[in-house]
């Protein structure tokens, strides 16, 4: 089990990025959340899952959906807390 905290910067708000992350995370069996940060150009992801699924999700996030431009990504691994039941979009 692995937990990751990711900050994605660029043209990632208003382009379907959160829905894209949620759909892919759920397909991979990853739990956690995605949300826009108030600065207008950062999306935050906190995700837990098996090692392979987390690494796949990071790769998917790095590419982003059509229309998104990922300029920078900060990836930080943390101790799993097993606190999520699903993968959600937070508002």
UniProtKB/TrEMBL annotation:
InterPro entries: Acylphosphatase, Acylphosphatase-like_dom, Acylphosphatase-like_dom_sf, Acylphosphatase_CS. It holds the Pfam family Acylphosphatase. Keywords: Hydrolase. GO terms for molecular function: acylphosphatase activity. Residues 3-91 form the Acylphosphatase-like domain. Its EC number is 3.6.1.7. Gene3D superfamilies: 3.30.70.100. It catalyses: an acyl phosphate + H2O = a carboxylate + phosphate + H(+). It is an enzyme of class 3 (hydrolase). This is acylphosphatase. Belongs to the acylphosphatase family. It comes from Vulcanisaeta souniana JCM 11219. The active site is at residues 18, 36.
